[in-house]
Specification:
Layout lengths: L7 H34 L4 H46 L1
Length: about 90
């Protein structure tokens, strides 16, 4: 017979990893922004403006959305862990 439910210890480990990856991605976004600012300060002209604009209008929002999605994904997993533990507690 197939096992149903969730191994919440494993799921908590995955949740911890996802949360850590979210933090890393958030830090990476900030680091990239700093690098873009640095290069923009050392680069004059229309190409520099376009480069910074592309970061600000395309890449940073995409990465920020990915970070938000990852955070929500981790939150959903934690909600499922809590539900599983509540359900399992009522079965004992």
């Amino acid at each position: 017979m197939a096992n149903k439910g969730m191994d919440t210890d494993i799921a908590r480990g995955v949740h911890s990893q996802l949360t850590g990856l979210h933090g890393q991605l958030t830090t990476l976004i900030s680091s990239i922004g700093s690098q873009v600012t640095t290069v923009h300060g050392a680069w004059d002209g229309a190409d520099s403006i376009q480069f910074e604009s592309e970061w600000s209008s395309v890449h940073r929002p995409a990465l920020t959305n990915a970070a938000s999605a990852l955070e929500q994904f981790a939150r959903t997993l934690m909600n499922n862990i809590t539900t599983q533990e509540t359900t399992s507690g009522t079965l004992n």
